[in-house]
Structures are given as structure tokens and as C-alpha cells.
Amino acid sequence: MNKALTEEILAMLESDARLSAADMATMTGASEEEIAAAVAALEADKTIVKYTAIINSDKTSSDDAEALIEVKVVPKRGLGYDDLADRIARFTEVKSVYLMSGAYDLSVVVKAASMKQISHFVFEKLAILDGVASTVTHFIMRKYKEQGVVLSATETEERLVISP
């Protein structure tokens, strides 16, 4: 598979996962069959893991709460951070887990029906795990931008004035 074409396909799908093979073929100059085969191969080798939509929760009736939790870890010998990160990722409340540099080790994004449920998750499930040294929970109050997409309704696109 052509590496440049693969990178181009990934960039296009990351920007708009609804693009068809025909659309991408037109944009790249490759054949529709070549694009379809490349996408199938990327899905098979788990380079493309999932297609998803970005939802502006301010426009929905959902009252779900989200939080970013900083987790300091005492890694186990021979297992490092991976073992604990895998255990944390298995909880249904957990949406994302990232290994971080800096003041804490893992960043955990959690979603639940309420802030109270997130609090219960932290003190009943997360904080008691062997290897978790401490947690700091930050509740997400409003999202302004998600995955490169501006969500705020007040954002208007304005052209810059060009002057001689």
C-alpha cells in the first residue's frame, strides 16, 4: 500500500469519516477500488479502530457529566503503567486513558449520569485500585472545542480585512 496515499486517506477520514471511497478517489486521483482496498486494510490491521461523531452536548437534552481525572500511579515491577492503565480502561464509565508526562501519570476521562456518580466511581472503584497513589478530579463544565471542532454557538467566521 502506498504510504503517501495511506496518510492522505487517514487525514481525510479523521477530518470527515463520512467521506465515501468515491469522494476520496476524486480528491486523491486514485481509483475507487484502490481507496476501498486501502480503507479495508487499515480497518483490518486496526489502524482505523472506529468511526464516530462529535456531539455538541449543549444541543442535546443529556445531563451527563464528564470529568478529567489525574491519576498518580506506583507502577508494578515488570508491568509498568500498562497493567494499571488496562485495568482502568475496562471500567464502563471510562471513555479515555492516556499516559502523561508531568505532574501525574495517567489522564482518565470519565462520563456518567451525574457528578455524584463520577464521585462514587472515583472513591469506590478508581482510588482503591492497587497501584493508584492519588487522584484529582476535574469536572468538565463546558466544551468549547473537541477534536479540532469549535462547538460554541457564539463562534462566527469572520474574514480579515485586507488593506494595501
CATH architecture tag of the largest domain:
2-Layer Sandwich
Intertermini distance: 48 Å
Write down the domain tally: 2
Radius of gyration over C-alpha positions, nearest whole angstrom: 21 Å
Mean pLDDT over all positions? 91
CATH superfamily of the largest domain: Lrp/AsnC effector binding domain/regulation of amino acid metabolism (RAM) domain
Strand order of the largest sheet: 2-3-1-4
Q: How much helicity do the residues have?
A: 25-40%
Structural class comes to alpha+beta
Global shape: extended
Number of strands: 6
Low-confidence stretches: none
Largest sheet report: 4 strands, antiparallel
Outline the structure in words:
This protein has helices at 3-15, 21-28, 32-44, 82-89, 115-126; strands at 65-73, 94-99, 106-112, 132-140, 145-146, 149-150. The protein has 164 residues and is an alpha+beta fold. The protein folds into 2 domains: 3-44, Arc Repressor Mutant, subunit A (Orthogonal Bundle), CATH 1.10.10; 63-142, Lrp/AsnC effector binding domain/regulation of amino acid metabolism (RAM) domain (Alpha-Beta Plaits). The strands form 2 sheets. A 4-stranded antiparallel β-sheet has the order 2-3-1-4. The chain has a two-stranded antiparallel ribbon with strand order 5-6. β5 (145-146) and β6 (149-150) form a beta hairpin. α2 (21-28) packs across α3 (32-44). The radius of gyration is 21 Å and the shape is extended. It starts with a helix and ends in a 14-residue tail after the last strand.
